[in-house]
């Protein structure tokens, strides 16, 4: 018997054993032993329980959907499809010169010195205290890792974490990975006879109060909020802050959309409320601040005693972030700090740039059968699509939740990709998101206009 023949014969035995385990077990002892070993190995190397079943996230699924069906307009993922400020691009290109060769090497693990110094200059006036750049600021691999380090660094086995729904989908996963127990409370729209805005989406104070107990370790706040665009007002923040203080709970404040707030709303930082500095970790993002989401630089700031836990996780996970990108972010901050009190400063101009896009696209959605919630911050619009139910046949889509079925069918038929908001709810509350779709409007004007054209054409065909 040749080697090739023997090889084929062995593989036939393996395939037969996999497809016919009963027959193998009823045969000789040797095949049974081999099959048992394979089963044991598969079981031994399965995904750890803390990661669940390893389901693909909504982002993985919808990026694949876009690759497969190639919708004409992608209003799903939250990133600009036009250039960031010119000085930001120039900062990175300047660093690529031979004279900056040392910037191609490791930098300080907890944050590039030039960057943490500038972050201190940006935030110290905003929180009315001097931030120590070396002990109270941590630079991370995007705001995503800042969240990860904060949750893994503070949540222990059995600790409860209050999560406000809808929420950025990684919150739930990270809490469970740390051994924590998420406790969910949903923002719900109040009835209104006027335009529905994100301010109409509120928490039930009694329900919120009932979630706090001796096991509560943390509450995660997101303001301005993704995906609703809600900017929590002072009264709402004080309710949360007072409960955190009463029950000795840490507030993890995700404020990555801090510069995108539309007048007359004001972004209030949780860390500035009375006695909240000592129990607040705040998250920020260069990707959102300078419209460079692919740079993946974020940060967290807070009191040294809380930040130490984040540093421990960071040094044993990422250790240090990309030096040239940190340097470019630092230089970009310096450019903006030099004009911080002028209308031209990007911190001030980005909301003016986006408000016209927001207003335009709210109008587009209304004219095409959607009922949008007007956001007070951020760059997403949640829109109720249920008036279109009689125009779209979802029976060919097999997903459990109808917002998944709608967004997939709408992408295929209209050529406009959006995101299903039920992805941002816990299993028990997913029904609260099923009537909506999330649209991202930080896009070129011509692409927003193309989305309008495609939706009008789609509606015309459905008459």
Textual characterization of the structure:
The chain has 16 helices and 14 strands. The relative contact order is 0.14. Mean pLDDT is 92; it is low at 14-18 and 21-28. The chain has a 7-stranded mixed sheet, with helices on both faces. The chain has helices at 3-19, 21-25, 29-44, 58-69, 86-95, 113-127, 142-154, 170-177, 205-211, 234-246, 286-289, 304-315, 323-337, 346-367, 402-414, 445-461, and strands at 73-74, 137-140, 160-165, 181-186, 188-189, 201-202, 216-222, 250-254, 280-285, 298-301, 371-373, 380-384, 416-417, 436-440. By secondary structure, it is of the alpha/beta class.
The sequence of SSEs as H and E is HHHHEHHEHEHEEEHEHEEHEHHHEEHEEH
Percentage of helical residues? 40-55%
What is the average per-residue confidence, as pLDDT, rounded to a whole number?
A: 92
Please give the largest β-sheet: 7 strands, mixed
How far apart are the termini? 71 Å
Shape: globular
Summarize the helices and strands and which ones pair or pack.
Blueprint: H1 3-19, H2 21-25, H3 29-44, H4 58-69, E1 73-74, H5 86-95, H6 113-127, E2 137-140, H7 142-154, E3 160-165, H8 170-177, E4 181-186, E5 188-189, E6 201-202, H9 205-211, E7 216-222, H10 234-246, E8 250-254, E9 280-285, H11 286-289, E10 298-301, H12 304-315, H13 323-337, H14 346-367, E11 371-373, E12 380-384, H15 402-414, E13 416-417, E14 436-440, H16 445-461
State the main characteristics.
globular; three-stranded antiparallel β-sheet; seven-stranded mixed β-sheet; 463 residues; alpha/beta
């Amino acid at each position: 018997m040749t080697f090739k023949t023997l090889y084929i014969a062995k593989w036939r035995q393996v395939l037969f054993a996999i497809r016919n385990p009963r027959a193998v077990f009823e045969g000789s002892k040797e095949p049974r032993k081999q099959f048992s070993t394979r089963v044991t190995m598969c079981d031994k190397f399965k995904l750890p329980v803390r990661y669940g079943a390893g389901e693909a996230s909504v982002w993985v699924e919808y990026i694949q959907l876009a690759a497969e069906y190639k919708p004409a307009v992608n209003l799903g993922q939250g990133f600009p499809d036009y250039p960031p400020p010119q000085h930001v691009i120039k900062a990175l290109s300047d660093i690529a010169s031979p004279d900056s060769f040392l910037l191609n090497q490791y930098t300080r693990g907890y944050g590039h010195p030039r960057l943490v110094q500038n972050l201190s200059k940006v935030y110290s006036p905003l929180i009315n205290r001097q931030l120590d750049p070396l002990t109270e600021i941590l630079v991370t691999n995007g705001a995503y890792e800042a969240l990860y380090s904060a949750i893994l660094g503070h949540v222990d086995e059995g600790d409860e974490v209050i999560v406000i729904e809808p929420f950025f989908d990684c919150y739930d996963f990270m809490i469970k990975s740390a051994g924590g127990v998420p406790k969910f409370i949903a923002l719900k729209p109040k009835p209104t006879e006027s335009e529905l805005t994100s301010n109409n989406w509120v928490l039930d104070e009694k329900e919120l109060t009932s979630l706090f107990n001796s096991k509560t370790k943390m509450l995660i706040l997101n303001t301005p909020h993704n995906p609703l665009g809600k900017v929590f007002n002072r009264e709402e923040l004080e309710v949360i802050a007072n409960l955190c203080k009463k029950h000795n709970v840490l507030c993890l404040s995700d404020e990555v959309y801090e510069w995108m707030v539309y007048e007359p709303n004001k972004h209030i930082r949780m860390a500035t409320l009375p006695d909240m500095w000592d129990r607040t970790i705040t998250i920020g993002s260069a990707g959102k601040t300078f419209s460079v989401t692919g740079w993946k630089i974020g940060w967290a700031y807070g009191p040294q005693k809380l930040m130490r836990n984040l540093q421990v996780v960071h040094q044993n996970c990422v250790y240090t972030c990309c030096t040239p990108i940190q340097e470019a972010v630092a230089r970009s901050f310096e450019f903006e700090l030099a004009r911080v009190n002028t209308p031209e400063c990007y911190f001030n101009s980005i909301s003016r740039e986006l408000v016209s896009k927001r207003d335009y696209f709210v109008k587009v959605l209304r004219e095409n059968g959607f009922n949008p919630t007007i956001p007070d911050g951020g760059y997403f619009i949640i829109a109720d699509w249920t008036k279109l139910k009689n125009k779209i046949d979802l029976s060919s889509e097999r997903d459990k939740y109808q917002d998944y079925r709608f967004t997939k069918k709408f992408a295929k038929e209209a050529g406009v990709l959006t995101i299903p908001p039920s992805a941002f709810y816990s299993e028990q509350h997913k029904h609260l998101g099923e009537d909506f779709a999330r649209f991202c409007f930080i896009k070129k004007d011509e692409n927003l206009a193309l989305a309008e054209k495609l939706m009008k054409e789609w509606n015309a065909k459905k008459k």
